[in-house]
Fold each of these.
Amino acid sequence: MKIENGDLVVPGDFLGIIEQYLPGNGTYDDEGDIKSSIAGNVTIDNRTISIIPKSGEPSVLKIGDRIYGQITDVRGQRAMINLDRLKHTDRQLALPYMGAIHISQVKNGYLDKLTDAFRIGDIIEGEVSKISSDNVDLSTIHDECGVVKAMCTRCRAYMKTTSKPDELYCEVCNKKEKRKVSSNYVNE
Ligand SMILES: [Zn+2]
């Protein structure tokens, strides 16, 4: 299995070969095989492969942290998010946290239905509002929070912002869709 950024490894795990990577912190060269010397998460930076120790990580998330994730489900009053990483770091989260946003935490003002804010596959920026074991509640009320990248639900092209707030537009099929759009939305 190919090792990727963020993978959790234990001491002795095979990470790659010396022709492929330079052994970085937390790794060792075992006759051309690069192996992990500690338990932690893989980071690959250019050609250097390193392990960030789990024990060295702070409990990772705290209330108020900004975090990126991808919407995996939108159902009733809750959108589910696969949390990816903290804003301002390239570090993956140490644990596979699951996130959720309740409809009351999406935006100021009335939201008729959650699908007017998020669709499956959207990349969002959210603010951590509650942490319980491995579940995290997010809020997207802040202007910078909300959808930062979205695909058209009809043709899967990336959508662009319009002059109206919380509206996205598909240049490929001309569809307009509603979202809770972040002020950091990436138009490209
Ligand atoms: Zn489209």
Amino acid sequence: MTDKKEIKPKVETTGHSWDGIKEYNNPLPRWWLWTFYATIAWALIYTILYPAWPLVNGATGGVLGWSQRAEVASEIEAVTASQSQLRDALVETDLGVLARNEELHRYAVQAGGALYRTNCSQCHGSGAAGAVGYPNLLDDDWLWGGRIEDIALTIRHGIRNEDDPDARFSQMPAFGDMLDRDQIATLVDHVQSLPNGADPLGGAGGALFAENCASCHGDDARGDREIGATNLTDAIWLYSPDDEILTSLISQGPYGVMPAWGDRLGEYGVRAVAAYVHQLGGGEGDAETQIGDAQAADAPIATGADPSNPADVPFPEKGDGGAASRSE
Ligand code: HEC
Ligand code: HEC
């Protein structure tokens, strides 16, 4: 009986039939149709307003003149404008008190981190832990000084390079020409014993040390930051305590070279990356200890270093003192 109903439908069929199943020729639902027309209208309006139709060189521009490139460019411009304010501020600020300006400091450290990863990590390591001949920048053992101004100076002019006349410079002589093998072997033993607390001037090694080495490394063997002479009493090695390496190092004289970055990164970049390195863990001095109060500004040592420790006094013989006179 149901079969009969289906054979005489109210609506016409399309005439298609599959295994006895027929297709009604119903009109499309109205809501569907209007939605369909609306999408066509929308598409037309859109292609008139916005860039749409591909042409040989590019595409139709659209009457609104909108372009993704212009959009991005204006966004970049806005960001650059807000950053250039921070950049200017960074260049003008006194590095010693940078950390007091939280926003500027955070910006400098972030920008400096990016600069570090591109320019410095190949030598100092991506984690800044250094390698043989390339100092670790994470610890508080500094060859040339660990205040932010010292670090900036090192970065700006580099070390022992030939490009920058203001590069930090010093040279340990090649003792292979001046001492014989036995003397050098004695010195190697002596140097190896220093981190264990041996008396720098004691014994045969001490005598040789006093005569040949103490002028730079100091009677206490704690080094001299003014000439980048390493502290030999700590267990931190720029090179290595290995017999062979020490022998050739003392015979030939080490000569670590670091490029100058002032021209490449500009003053802003130098300061940013100095701020980054300074906060890695070993940075010395902070806003409070440097110019936090009048006393600190007058004190000969305003570095946050231990004043009772002679090796921590960066430039003890310059009686002019004061943080300001030493910061470049
Ligand atoms: C081509 C390798 C090289 C690159 C690149 C390099 N450095 Fe150095 N850097 C050195 C060497 C070598 C020394 C140690 C020089 C010496 O023996 O006194 C050094 C020393 C330093 C020091 C002094 C550390 C101390 O104990 O006083 C700082 C700070 C420093 N580098 C920061 C940087 C920063 C920041 C960058 C990137 C902008 C950078 N370096 C890029 C090789 C490099
Ligand atoms: C004219 C100054 C000067 C004299 C004299 C001198 N040194 Fe040095 N010494 C340096 C400097 C500067 C460095 C760092 C070199 C570098 O960074 O490449 C250094 C580095 C070293 C190092 C590397 C330490 C490390 O951490 O890897 C050793 C070891 C050393 N000296 C031992 C000696 C001994 C031993 C003598 C005496 C025979 C001596 N030095 C005499 C200036 C001097």
